[in-house]
Amino acid sequence: MTDPDDTETPPGLKKADLLLLLPFVWQLGFAPWANDVEWRPLGLPFGMVWQMAGIVFATAVLALRFMLDRKLEDAA
Question: Quick one: 28 exposed, middle or buried, by C-beta within 10 A (0-12, 13-18, 19+)?
């Protein structure tokens, strides 16, 4: 028996799930561009700074996706 209070997510992708592709585009799509940059912020290679910025970006995207998921749960 299933509890009627259980809120199961319907199968399939939601529009908000597409946000999860952004970190992949950041890392894979812009990597050739980032490798050609000669600028060395704070004396670090640009590729290293790019990776650190990607971690912050991915965390922000995941936080946004989490907030959208909570909003959808509260609406249901």
Answer: exposed
**Is residue 49 within 8 Å of 42, Cβ to Cβ?**
yes
Residue 51 near residue 26, CB atoms below 8 Å = no
| Number of C-beta neighbours around residue 34 at 10 A | 19
Task: Scan for tokens 């946000």, then name that residue.
Answer: 19
pTM confidence score? 0.73
Rounded CA-CA distance 38/29 in Å is 18
Mean pLDDT of 11-15: 71
Tokens of 21: 């592709």
> What whole-number distance in Å separates Cα of residue 28 and Cα of residue 10?
30
